[in-house]
Structure formats: structure tokens, C-alpha cells
Amino acid sequence: MIRNPDQAEDVRAAGAEPRVADIEHLDVDALVDVVRGHDAVVWSAGAGGGDAARTMAVDRDAAIRTMDAAARAGVPRYVMVSYFGASRDHGVDPENAFYTYAEAKSQADEHLRESELDWTVLGPSGLTLDPPAGAIDVDAENGETVARADVAATIAAVLADDTTIRRTIRFNTGTTPIAEAVRDRS
User: Fold this and answer.
1) Catalytic residue among 78, 83, 99, 101
2) Which of 15, 43, 49, 135 is most solvent-facing, going by the fewest CB within 10 Å?
3) pTM to 2 decimals?
4) What is the pLDDT of residues 56-102, one digit of tens each?
């Protein structure tokens, strides 16, 4: 699902059928219709910052509605693209412009973790347009950067690997091939 109809041809070229809709304004019933019949929901939408009310409306509220819609539609798999430092104890100062986003993401992530869905929360570090490395570091203590293309490849890898269910995976660019890096090593 995309908001911008100008992106439809790119989506088709990638092998998917685009659906143009504004998730900010769809209720749970409408979202049930959107996700029904699919194998998974991947949440990678975001308000883009700047407006606190819109950030909460998209990054928290719309995300939570899609989780609830997935559960109602019988779509068990849900992958949340969050950010490296996301947690209820994110430590972002309320005066910082990033605070609303940190709050929204932590609340959405928490809702997902408390759900019955087969969830994975991905925590990529700072996104870049660098060429993909095809490898990530899931053991880093601090966020650095990761190519957007490697985030997309990580989404695909966790969808293909059930050992990622009910796990939070934070990552930077690294040296371990993505599929190997996300596999549960416990």
C-alpha cells in the first residue's frame, strides 16, 4: 500500500500490485479488507517528522490499527520496521524534536509485542542511500548506519525465517550475510 500514486509503476516493476490509500485515515475495518488474504504485514510507513500530531497518527495509531486488522483478518505474520534505539526507555529528551517519534514507535512496538501476532521488530540504525552491503551487524551496542536496500533485504530475510518470530533485531551495516545474521543463534 502506498500513498503516492506516482510510485505505482515502481511497485509494479518490482513485481507487486500497488494499492493507493492513506493509512492515516483508514479505520480497522478498512484495513482488514486491505490485509485479508495476505501472508504478512510489513509496517515501514512513517509520517516523516515535523508535525507531532501527524507523527502520532501515523507512527503509532495507524501502525496499531494495522496490527489489530492483521489479527482480525487472520494474517498472523507482522514485521515492524522501527529504529535502533526504540524502547519505552528510549531516553530522548521531551524537548528534542525526535521525542514524539521515539514515543510513537515505542508505543507501537509495545502494542505489537503484546499481541498474539507472529511479530518481528526490526531496529535499523540511521538509513542511508549507500549501495547495499548484503551484510549486517546484529550485535552492535550503538546505532550507526545501514543502507535502505539492506533494510529491505533484512525484511525479506526475516519473513523467510521463522526463528525471527517474537524477536527484536537491531542492526547496522556489518559483515555477516543478512540471512545468517537474523537467524536465531540461541
Assistant:
1) 101
2) 15
3) 0.94
4) 999 999 999 999 999 999 999 999 999 998 988 888 899 988 899 99
